[in-house]
Amino acid sequence: MTETSNRPYSKPKSHGEKGTTLQGSRGPDTPPGRRGNTTVADAVVAKIAGMAAREIPEIHNLGGGTARAFGAMRERMPGQSGSVTQGVSVEVGERQAAVELQVVVEYGASITDTAGDVRANVIEAVERMTGLEVVEVNIAVDDVHLPDEEEPQQDERRVA
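Below the sequence we write its predicted structure tokens.
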């Protein structure tokens, strides 16, 4: 985990965007790596959390039923792809972040073990990449993917 005790955070004050800003120091005695400010948007934290959750093999998909249906329709549109943040919501403060995930677990997987693996992976990834402390990762298991359930073909095209 990145050491953040010497790096105070504050909210950005431009354009009303949500996120957090790493305030750097100024002056010739400050190391170059700490001069200036770094802003981390909420969307960045959501993408990191979504990718980290999907790295767990027992996670079939993210998002509730409605979100997955809209995601499947969006993927079929030319030039569109699935959203990494589907099923992910975050709340980012000055030094901390909270993450909420909606997941679909593969049938046969231990839900409690899978949730623990997801929590650990999301916390490690977000803290390592952003320096924020993740105070909680709430997981809602919305569905279980059965082996005989068909997934829509993404390469299916009506016009050649």
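The beta strands are 9-10, 19-22, 38-41, 59-62, 88-92, 96-106, 133-145.
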